Model the fold of this input.
Amino acid sequence: MKTDLESWFEKKRDCFDIAEPGDGHELRFLDKLKEHKKEEKVVTARSLNWWKPLVAAAAIVLIVFAGYATVKPKISNAGLAAVSPEMAKTQDFFTKAIEEELYNINEARTPQTQQMVEDALVQLEILEKDYNKLTHDLATSGEDRRVIYAMIANFQARIDLLNTVLEEIESIKKIKTNDYEDQLL
Done:
């Protein structure tokens, strides 16, 4: 194996760089190395200069957000139930009454009353959005009586709307039944 390796080196001898470096090569190399280190220090100093304010700003933002999260008022979406146990009962009563009226309307829905029911549902959705705003106002106002009265009035308006629609559906059914009876006679 030595002979193979030795013969290989002898064949490749011309490929190797065996020239001696010139005079002062070591000094030139050390000067270039020093320059490179100075440039590296300047670059690191520059890069650290803009990182320090960035880190400080990020820390301040985190502190502000953490402080805001602990200090900000908790907004409750519980509605009237958050005020008192009596108001919770009132909210439950109105909610159940609205659900019952909606069930009755859906049971009584016919193709002739379809448009009226859809319009009522749109109005009901508007009243629901108003109620959500009132819930937010209640949480921020600290249980202001005016807001509580407005919330109760909103519930009553929804029930009145649904009652009116149900009455209209019933009157349409009666008219239809009377017309059918008249045709039979």
